[in-house]
Amino acid sequence: MKVVSDTSPICYLALIGELDLLPALYERVHIPEAVAAELKHPSAPAILRSWVESSPACLEILKVRQRDSSGMERLQMGEREAIFLAEDLGASLLIVDDRRAREVALMRGLEITGLLGLLGEAAKRKLVYLPDVFERLQRTSFRTTPGFLKALLEKHP
After folding, report:
1. CATH at 140
2. Based on the structure, what is the number of domains in the chain?
3. pTM for this structure?
4. Do 82 and 5 meet the contact criterion of CB atoms below 8 Å apart?
5. Which of 38, 44, 67, 128 sees the fewest Cβ atoms within 10 Å?
């Protein structure tokens, strides 16, 4: 299974101490150079910078072929490159949270999930206990509706 990720899901996994879920769920995660640059940016959390710089075995950073990005003007560079990379690789899954990026990816025929979908899958496989993970997530800047969290908790007790 080829999986591509945008910046924010990886960032939040780092902030809640769950980066190990990536290789546990997907074995290998591909990111474009723009996402790697965002993860290594001096303003990024130190844990995230050191994780990317240590080149974990599950992470592959790839160059993206440049092309017309019409219809993607409102997306950040990392989001655009993640979508292009998913297309280039014929990825089975794109992990992305931004609403506009998700809409563009779906319009382009990509299969998507976000951080919460990833955490739901991890809970289904008994890799995490969602109430604990959600408690840690709520201490970050991640935002979602309480109803969505409740639905996930009911689905994965």
Report:
1. 3.40.50.1010
2. 1
3. 0.93
4. yes
5. 67
